[in-house]
Write a structure and sequence with these properties.
heterodimer; A: five-stranded antiparallel beta sheet; about 0% helix; B: mainly beta; seven-stranded mixed beta sheet; four-stranded antiparallel beta sheet; about 50% strand
């Protein structure tokens, strides 16, 4: 099955700086890569996703890049704000399969 | 359009009792996933179901745990003879169809927090 690795496990940045979280996957058949944000005590919520036919996608301060050859994808958050503090999970999946999640990155934005 | 509904939100059970967690998927969704999240840990896949069929149960412990998604009614995750190590948040997620067809993703419910005392 698929194996998703996520780094770093914890990340602290100053407010206004950028944050980057990286994930790698093992199954070349994976073709969909969503990112979820989970605040303490709450459910994971989809924040952005990317499909294998696209190399980059951006939504305001959030962007995701995908390198299919290297089998890695990254989440970029620019101009970070305290409300960006949360645990972020990457995931990978392919047709008919379960979603394989990374181990999560705890992001702290320091005011 | 209501989201994924889980109940109970919080459940306390004594060791040896049974826990039943329910999940009603979003309207129009026919696929359900269950994930377990231990304190301070990530999301661990348990089982993936469609109505009346288990698609992937590779993450389910071999004993005491079972899941179903009947033709009518919610999906149920059942834990028999609970132990303290079962204390966790159990998240359900749903999708409209098999992932990849039409480009669908999964949406999570609010979770059910099980405490075993």
């Amino acid at each position: 099955g698929e194996n998703v690795e996520q780094h770093p496990s914890t990340l602290s940045v100053q407010e206004g700086d950028s944050a980057v979280i990286k994930c790698t996957y093992s199954d070349s058949a994976s073709n969909y890569f969503p990112w979820y944000k989970q605040e303490l005590g709450k459910r994971p919520q989809l924040i952005i996703d990317i499909r294998s036919n696209v190399g980059e996608k951006k939504d305001q301060r959030i962007a995701v890049t995908l390198n299919k050859t290297a089998k890695h994808f990254s989440l970029h958050i620019t101009e970070t704000q305290p409300e960006d503090s949360a645990v972020y999970y990457c995931a990978a999946t392919s047709y008919g399969n379960q979603f394989y999640f990374g181990t999560g990155t705890s992001l702290t934005v320091i005011p | 359009n209501a989201g994924v509904m889980q109940n109970p939100r919080h459940l306390v059970r004594r060791r040896g009792q049974e826990a039943r967690l329910r999940c009603s998927p979003m309207k129009g969704h026919s696929h359900v996933y269950w994930y377990r999240q231990l304190p301070e840990e990530g999301l661990k896949f348990m089982v993936y179901l469609q109505k009346e069929n288990i698609i992937d149960e590779s993450g389910m412990p071999k004993e005491r745990f079972s899941a179903e998604f009947p033709k009518e009614g919610p999906s149920i995750l059942r834990i028999q003879q609970v132990v303290r190590g079962d204390s966790a948040a159990y998240f359900c997620a749903s999708s409209p169809t098999i992932q990849g067809v039409g480009g669908n993703t999964i949406y999570f419910g609010e979770g059910s927090w099980l405490t075993v005392v």
